[in-house]
């Protein structure tokens, strides 16, 4: 079972994601990597990076996370074509515009659709496929923003909070099936998604997040905070009274 898992294709959903690509590069040596993204025809530099990292083959496929009706046909087709899915990395996500989302319900719903509803759809489809094959790994990205939701980014944060709950329950449902679900909870990651923002304390880089993901996958872990000392911060965050918490910056 373990050998099949480590040999099977790596599927990155959100194939242009900085964190997703760093994970893909680390898992690439000797493996098939599939980058699933919008505008899959313009992934040349991403494909080249993963190939240079040692992938045996790299494929690009069209994937729009928001179009949930396409998830099952796409994932079933990929699993059939490649003899299963070894490691699926859900790397798609949007930060959204909090100010706009506070008064524009369509934007608030769009953020939650990508960051929660679409994740639920992909996770449910993958869980069914991987359970049936009896092996595989799923990596899902939560965030410190969802550990205790802050006034400053409550739309994105609420989607991540929902995702934490869903991933925890699904992970327990998969316990003993041979399928590992890893919930990653990074703090502030210095990269494209946070361009122009001042780094928060205990921030990390996409490469550091990917190192932690690969280590946690290797250990069979179901949770990892990045950096690890954030686990203490997560605990302390729960103790702060609401009148103080509501003034927390994003
Ligand atoms: N960066 C952080 O500070 C941070 C912190 C904690 C957690 N996370 C989480 O980590 C994950 C990866 O983030 P990242 O830092 O790698 O961000 P990123 O570089 O901005 O990548 C996010 C990717 O999601 C893709 N995407 C968005 N909507 C999509 C859709 N409807 N269909 C398909 N792809 C879509 C984007 O694709 P396009 O190229 O097509 O736009 C983009 O490549 C996300 O879940 C994020 O919430 C990030």
Keywords summarizing the entry:
alpha/beta, Rossmann fold, seven-stranded parallel beta sheet, 250 residues, binds NADP nicotinamide-adenine-dinucleotide phosphate, globular
Molecular structure report:
- This protein has helices spanning 2-7, 18-27, 44-52, 71-82, 98-101, 105-133, 154-174, 206-219, 230-237, 242-245, and strands at 10-13, 32-37, 57-62, 87-90, 136-141, 179-186, 223-226.
- It is built from ten helices and seven strands.
- The model has no long low-confidence stretch (mean pLDDT 96).
- The chain has a single domain, classed as NAD(P)-binding Rossmann-like Domain (Rossmann fold, 3-Layer(aba) Sandwich), CATH 3.40.50.720.
- The termini are far apart.
- A seven-stranded parallel β-sheet has the order 3-2-1-4-5-6-7, with helices on both faces.
- The protein is of the alpha/beta class and 250 residues long.
């Amino acid at each position: 079972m373990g050998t099949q898992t480590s040999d099977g294709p790596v599927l990155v959903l959100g194939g242009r994601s900085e964190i997703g690509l760093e994970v893909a590069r680390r898992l690439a040596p000797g493996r098939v990597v599939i980058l699933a993204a919008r505008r899959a025809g313009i992934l040349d530099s991403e494909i080249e990076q993963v190939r240079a990292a040692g992938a045996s083959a790299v494929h690009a496929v069209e994937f729009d996370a928001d179009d949930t009706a396409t998830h099952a046909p796409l994932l079933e087709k990929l699993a059939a074509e490649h003899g299963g899915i070894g490691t699926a990395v859900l790397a798609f996500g949007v930060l959204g515009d909090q100010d706009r989302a506070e008064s524009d319900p369509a934007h608030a719903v769009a953020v939650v659709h990508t960051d929660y509803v679409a994740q639920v759809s992909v996770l449910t489809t993958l869980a069914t496929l991987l359970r049936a094959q009896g092996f595989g790994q799923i990596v899902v990205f939560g965030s410190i923003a969802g550990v205790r939701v802050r006034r400053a980014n409550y739309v994105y944060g609420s989607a991540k909070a929902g995702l934490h709950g869903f991933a925890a329950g699904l992970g327990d449902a998969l316990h003993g099936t041979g399928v590992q679900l890893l919930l990653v909870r990074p703090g502030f990651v210095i990269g494209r998604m946070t361009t122009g923002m001042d780094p928060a304390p205990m921030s990390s880089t996409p490469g550091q997040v990917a190192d932690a993901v690969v280590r946690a996958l290797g250990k069979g872990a179901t949770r990892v905070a990045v950096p690890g000392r954030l686990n203490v911060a997560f605990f302390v965050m729960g103790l702060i009274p609401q009148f103080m918490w509501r003034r927390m910056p994003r």
